[in-house]
Amino acid sequence: MMPVIEDLKEKFGKKLLAIEEKDVLTIEVARENFVELVSYLKDRGFNHLIDLCGVDYLNYTPFPKRERFELIYHLFNIQERILVRIKVPIPEKDAWQYSLVSLWKTADWFERECYDMFGIRFKGHPDLRRLLMPEDWVGHPLRKDYPLFLSEEQEWKVYKRLKEEDKGETL
Questions:
Q1: Among 51, 67, 81, 166, which is 20 to 30 Å from 61 by CA?
Q2: How confident is the model at residue 149 (pLDDT cuts 50, 70, 90)?
Q3: 3.30.460.80, 3.10.20.30, 3.40.190.10, 3.40.50.300: CATH of 2-166
Q4: Which is it for strands 25-29 and 82-90: parallel, antiparallel or unpaired?
């Protein structure tokens, strides 16, 4: 693992916000340096994007975070059997990230899911639209400020229609 860490420190230096080896090599990088870093890692053999997920740190108190949102990527070098975790802070008021679909086709659905659940947009994505929720759904369900229970006015209009059609009928 050390050659990867030393290589990244030498190549990117102060462009990396943090680098540490926990359960897996973890790199924190600003959005503006992200594409350069992942392109370099892909060229270095990290040819498998395992996962991309979002995290909402709203009201997170154990220790302060740089931004409300964070995107976490897991890249795997199949040849050397090395896993790398990349964290990218995403500001709440400017919630977007660069798309990786041109580097990894698997990023397509990962980015759509993240957009759907957290509302983080991906610049350069070829077809950014909801993946899990209906297109007319309001809000992003994995945000910490998303209501647990919706009022009748907030309910999804298709669900309201189905409830009306079902009144009086039992299953």
A1: 51
A2: confident
A3: 3.30.460.80
A4: parallel
